[in-house]
Design a protein that fits this description.
alpha/beta; 5-stranded parallel β-sheet
């Protein structure tokens, strides 16, 4: 039972029966009463007086009388101008807690028979995962969990970018300067090894650009800044190294045995590295797609679109779509020589994914620099009449920045995901040691705790911000025991777990029968229960908005509310057995809710801390 929902339904019924007006219950908002006036929740009647044709005080009194007489939930009320303050029966608070205690799956919905695919991670095989990838992975994994909790069958997909000129850059650099180096001989994870050669390629290419620029200056005695800048940009793609990389790509596409063999070997090293990172950060996938398998897809769909008049062809044989009616421009979908552009592949892959799984929704977790591309893709699939097109959603997220500015892979200035996770685990170890509360734990349990705290810290820090916002990452702040952090929530969970262990050791019961007649519910307990009952709505809202930040904020609210309750009210020194059982039950529901909420975010909750 959700108290606020029940009262809203009864207020809606009051409008229908007393005032002859139809007001949907979900448009009626109640707020916790935090004023000096008596009451647990408040209903503001001012917006409805035009319908009741009575002044605010009269309207509030009529509704208050109706609720007291009809609901059995409202004990009494008071009216302050247009504010109707409602006092909930103590028995109702107890009943609500009992219902939550009995429902192990409270907050989650039964299967709804619908499928949704969440595509996230989507790494390039020319470099290791970095801080930006962490936000992507954590968002995708958390959204998948939240949608599953709302009853969807979720397919977690990873489309790996394992081909193209950027991949050939790493391959060429390794071929030129690798000297047969392996991850084992270099003592590096495979993705780190390949990333090293990607950076090396860019460094060597930069040297060649500088040579071209120097030659350009020597041949042109007067060069303005604009012309020089333009030449530099063009020169980046006109070096001998770039020409060699282009040749290697052509060889790969022709199936050259040596080139494909090198590609497979280097990709295998990268995948081994990626899998180790995925395991360390606690994310997983149900299906992998590879661009090397999908890059030729879409050409048949382009032909279908030409036949339907969705696309048009220019004299040079290139194929386009006119999206000016949607406020965009004309978009190329196939080159005149018959080769694909990036969106050609995406069109084909969208069809492939639907053929494989037949999902109603498809969520693409991709950075906001691809907003235009994703808008075009959805419009194309809608124009083609695909049944899944309306369910395509781009979960566009902002970049993660550092105090020093943006990260650049080609310059080797990214924050490596593995290094960052290791740093936070080590920082968690240092901070935990300072508190001096885990000395007696077995060494394995300690190491698991440090990992739980370190990974929890970074996950929560990256997820608590609305996905659409660009954010600044601060490792030290993410482990603050007193702030809005996973560490604070985890500490609250550990404290609750200790309380329940003590209750078990003392054979203290928190069965419903032990507190069903309890009536002395205090304000802090009411506040906590009210927050706990909101869990299903929070999960629903997080799913509707594809925003794990709503769950993160909710978990923090729960932890704070429990901390407030715990500060003022003893549990094992309660005044009577019913009160003690009630408070242990309240702790049991809170610990379960915290754990469930955190698990939706992919964060583990420690039993000891």
């Amino acid at each position: 039972m959700n108290i606020e929902t029940l009262i809203a339904q009864q207020i809606s019924l009051c409008f229908e029966q007393v005032f002859g007006q139809n007001i949907a219950a979900d448009t009626i908002k109640l707020t916790p009463n935090k004023t000096e006036y008596e009451g647990d929740v408040t209903f503001v009647v001012f917006p409805f007086v035009k319908l009741t044709k009575k002044n605010p005080e009269e309207t509030a009194k009529i509704i208050g009388d109706f609720l007291v007489e009809k609901t059995g939930v409202v004990a009494k009320y008071s009216v302050v101008k247009g504010f109707l303050n409602l006092v909930i029966h103590s028995a109702t608070w107890v009943q609500v807690l009992a219902e939550m205690l009995a429902n192990e799956n409270f907050g989650k919905k039964a299967p709804n028979g619908k499928k949704v695919m969440v595509e996230y991670s989507s790494p390039n095989t020319n470099k290791p995962l970095h801080l930006g990838h962490l936000r992507n992975n954590f968002l995708g994994f958390a959204v998948s969990n939240i949608l599953a909790a709302n009853g969807y069958e979720v397919i977690k997909a990873n489309l790996v970018n394992d081909r193209g000129i950027h991949i050939c850059k790493s391959m060429l650099a390794y071929q030129k300067w690798g000297n047969g180096e392996t991850p084992q001989s270099a003592n590096l994870k495979g993705d780190h090894l390949i990333g090293k050669y990607y950076v090396l390629f860019e460094q060597e290419n930069k040297k060649q650009v500088e040579v071209l620029v120097a030659k350009f200056k020597a041949e042109n005695s007067i060069v303005d800044d604009e012309a020089l800048l333009k030449f530099k940009e063009n020169a980046k793609m006109q070096t001998a190294l770039i020409a060699e990389a282009q040749t290697m790509l052509e060889q790969w596409e022709k199936g050259d045995k040596a080139t494909v063999g090198l590609w497979k070997q280097m990709n295998d090293w990268v995948y081994e590295g990626f899998n180790a990172t995925y395991k360390a950060i606690g994310v997983s996938f149900d299906k992998f797609y590879y661009e090397s398998d999908t890059y030729l897809l879409g050409k048949d769909v382009i032909e279908e679109g030409l036949q339907k008049g969705v696309f048009y062809q220019k004299p040079d044989k290139s194929v386009w779509i006119d999206l000016t009616a949607e406020g965009l421009d004309h978009k190329l979908v196939l080159r005149g020589n018959g080769t694909s552009v990036y969106i050609t592949q995406d069109i084909g892959t969208a069809d492939l994914k639907y053929k494989d799984f037949g999902m109603e929704k498809s969520i693409y977790v991709i950075g906001n620099e691809q907003d235009y591309h994703m808008k075009v893709l959805k419009l194309i699939m809608q124009r083609l009449g695909r049944p899944y097109a309306d369910g395509m959603y781009h979960l566009s997220y902002g970049m993660v920045e550092l105090p020093t500015g943006k990260m650049k892979s080609r310059e080797g200035t990214v924050v490596d995901a593995d290094d960052l996770v290791a740093e936070l685990i080590n920082l968690a170890k240092e901070k935990t040691a300072e508190l001096g509360k885990v000395q007696e734990l077995p060494e394995t349990e300690k190491e698991n705790l440090y990992h739980t705290l370190g990974t929890g810290a970074i996950k929560y820090f990256l997820l608590k911000v609305d996905p659409r916002k660009t954010m600044l990452f601060n490792p030290e702040e993410s482990l603050d025991l007193q702030g809005d952090t996973a560490t604070y929530i985890q500490y609250t969970h550990a404290r609750l777990a200790a309380i329940l262990r003590r209750a078990t050791a003392l054979s203290e019961t928190h069965a419903v029968a032990a507190f069903k007649d309890f009536s002395d519910v205090n304000p802090e307990e009411k506040e906590l229960i009210q927050l706990l009952t909101a869990f299903p709505q929070k999960i629903q809202s997080a799913a509707d908005e594809y925003s794990p930040a709503l769950i993160a904020s909710y978990a923090y609210e729960i932890a704070r509310a429990y901390g407030k309750f715990y500060h003022f009210h003893p549990i094992f020194d309660a005044s009577n057995a019913a009160q003690k059982a009630f408070r242990i039950a309240l702790s049991a529901v809170t610990v379960r809710t915290l754990k469930t909420a955190a698990n939706l975010l992919g964060i583990e909750m420690p039993e000891r801390m």
